[in-house]
Amino acid sequence: MGNEESTPIDESVPPQTLKARDLEALADYIKSGKVKNVVVMTGAGISTSAGIPDFRSPDTGLYANLARLNLPYAEAVFDISYFKENPEPFYTLAHEIYPGKYRPTIAHSFIRLLHDKGILLKLFTQNIDCLEREAGVPDDKIVEAHGSFARQSCIECHQPYPEDDIKQHIAAKSIPRCHECKGLVKPEIVFFGEQLPAAFFHNRHLPQDSDLCIVMGTSLTVQPFASLPEMTRTATPRVLINKERVGGLGSGTDDILLLGDCDDGVKKLAKACGWLGELEKLWAKTAYRVGDDADSAAEQPSHEQQPEKTKDEALEEEIDKITREVDETLNLSKWHEERVRGEGLPTVSSSKLSNTTATKEESADIARLHEDEESSLGHIFVSREAKDAALEAEKSTKE
């Protein structure tokens, strides 16, 4: 099961539960009161409009953008063996995508709306970004199949680690270590080589109890998550809100396909149900700035309600954008130069990841990088001062 080929249902085959296989019939079914237990399954596609890149897009994905860290292979950033030897690349990534920097999408708020309506049975998500929580979906309604940044613990003694402490480390770009045994601390994200959380296996039967299954923003290629939609009853309507058809959805008698952008899809469904106003109001509450508390969210204007910029403000914003682009180009050149000179992070050979013995030189280099209790990541991040100096140098060259 998963993203296998399957034949779409023949249109001559009647649905078992819905009046028809279309959006209007689905909305009528939801509004009828028969829907009391909705199971939602999500992937990275519901977070991309928040500004969080997916993993494998060739130019914009997280793996593509980690090339500057000189990893032996892109996925090593989530390899538990590699993390134990060299945690810096993961904490570089954590600094960039840690919860609190991104606003939930309207798709996340739609899941919250289902909860507020009293019909959300469980959300199964592959995402680690915690945006469902930011949108207000309660912890007991969420199964994070691949873990998340919501909790963290020591990889040696498994002692929980305080959330405030890890936030300070990530903000300071330093490596957290256990207060008890000094072992490395890691958010409870499932790395390659680790088991899925027990909560996934304890709850994976729930699709069988659902009246409606909604699948959003996932390729359904990673098992065992990909098998979840197949665990629904035959007569349970399944809705796919996705850019393409995946996982055999569309082959069931009551499958509905809303192909396209996830945010557009949930707005269409909410409108058909008469919920669009509620959804937009709920989403507007997530528009608070980073650092504000959620209670003040409702007082903050949404993106659509922001006052128009003056010509001077628009010009200043455009200049800032160009400056950032120049900075990024210069930084990439700097990273490339460092790699060519051999000044970047030392790599761990593929043989070491296969549990063979590393050379003394490799071990010494790695040990020096994170032997302290609070190792710095300063050698990875380019300082603001360095950026300014590079920009001035670039200007002088052009002159």
UniProtKB/TrEMBL annotation:
<dbReference type="InterPro" id="IPR026590">
    <property type="entry name" value="Ssirtuin_cat_dom"/>
</dbReference>
<dbReference type="GO" id="GO:0005634">
    <property type="term" value="C:nucleus"/>
</dbReference>
<dbReference type="GO" id="GO:0070403">
    <property type="term" value="F:NAD+ binding"/>
</dbReference>
<dbReference type="InterPro" id="IPR026591">
    <property type="entry name" value="Sirtuin_cat_small_dom_sf"/>
</dbReference>
<feature type="region of interest" description="Disordered">
    <location>
        <begin position="293"/>
        <end position="314"/>
    </location>
</feature>
<feature type="binding site">
    <location>
        <position position="154"/>
    </location>
    <ligand>
        <name>Zn(2+)</name>
    </ligand>
</feature>
<feature type="binding site">
    <location>
        <begin position="218"/>
        <end position="219"/>
    </location>
    <ligand>
        <name>NAD(+)</name>
    </ligand>
</feature>
<feature type="compositionally biased region" description="Basic and acidic residues">
    <location>
        <begin position="301"/>
        <end position="313"/>
    </location>
</feature>
<feature type="active site" description="Proton acceptor">
    <location>
        <position position="146"/>
    </location>
</feature>
<feature type="region of interest" description="Disordered">
    <location>
        <begin position="340"/>
        <end position="364"/>
    </location>
</feature>
<feature type="binding site">
    <location>
        <position position="262"/>
    </location>
    <ligand>
        <name>NAD(+)</name>
    </ligand>
</feature>
<dbReference type="InterPro" id="IPR017328">
    <property type="entry name" value="Sirtuin_class_I"/>
</dbReference>
<feature type="binding site">
    <location>
        <begin position="242"/>
        <end position="244"/>
    </location>
    <ligand>
        <name>NAD(+)</name>
    </ligand>
</feature>
<dbReference type="InterPro" id="IPR050134">
    <property type="entry name" value="NAD-dep_sirtuin_deacylases"/>
</dbReference>
<protein>
    <recommendedName>
        <fullName>NAD-dependent protein deacetylase</fullName>
        <ecNumber>2.3.1.286</ecNumber>
    </recommendedName>
</protein>
<dbReference type="GO" id="GO:0008270">
    <property type="term" value="F:zinc ion binding"/>
</dbReference>
<feature type="binding site">
    <location>
        <begin position="44"/>
        <end position="48"/>
    </location>
    <ligand>
        <name>NAD(+)</name>
    </ligand>
</feature>
<feature type="domain" description="Deacetylase sirtuin-type">
    <location>
        <begin position="16"/>
        <end position="276"/>
    </location>
</feature>
<dbReference type="InterPro" id="IPR003000">
    <property type="entry name" value="Sirtuin"/>
</dbReference>
<feature type="compositionally biased region" description="Polar residues">
    <location>
        <begin position="347"/>
        <end position="358"/>
    </location>
</feature>
<dbReference type="GO" id="GO:0017136">
    <property type="term" value="F:histone deacetylase activity, NAD-dependent"/>
</dbReference>
<feature type="binding site">
    <location>
        <begin position="54"/>
        <end position="56"/>
    </location>
    <ligand>
        <name>NAD(+)</name>
    </ligand>
</feature>
<comment type="similarity">
    <text>Belongs to the sirtuin family. Class I subfamily.</text>
</comment>
<feature type="binding site">
    <location>
        <begin position="126"/>
        <end position="129"/>
    </location>
    <ligand>
        <name>NAD(+)</name>
    </ligand>
</feature>
<dbReference type="InterPro" id="IPR029035">
    <property type="entry name" value="DHS-like_NAD/FAD-binding_dom"/>
</dbReference>
<dbReference type="Pfam" id="PF02146">
    <property type="entry name" value="SIR2"/>
</dbReference>
<keyword id="KW-0520">NAD</keyword>
<feature type="binding site">
    <location>
        <position position="178"/>
    </location>
    <ligand>
        <name>Zn(2+)</name>
    </ligand>
</feature>
<keyword id="KW-0479">Metal-binding</keyword>
<feature type="binding site">
    <location>
        <position position="181"/>
    </location>
    <ligand>
        <name>Zn(2+)</name>
    </ligand>
</feature>
<keyword id="KW-0862">Zinc</keyword>
<feature type="binding site">
    <location>
        <position position="157"/>
    </location>
    <ligand>
        <name>Zn(2+)</name>
    </ligand>
</feature>
<keyword id="KW-0808">Transferase</keyword>
